[in-house]
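My current task is to audit a protein record that another person submitted. Alongside the sequence sits a line of tokens, each denoting a local backbone shape. Please read both lines and tell me whether the tokens look consistent with the sequence. Do not assume that whoever made the record got everything right. Thanks in advance; the entry in question is below.
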Amino acid sequence: MPDTGRIASSYTQYHAWMCLVATLWRTVFDAVLVMSNNILSNDHLHYMR
């Protein structure tokens, strides 16, 4: 008889870990996007002057 409780708990831990990684990746991606947008807009303003 398989240990369904242990399998379910490991799956839950895996799912929570993946959610955490996805959230971190999303935050990093948004931060990089904002930073690159700021750099591009600053360069654009600098060249416009």
The two ends are 75 Å apart (CA to CA).
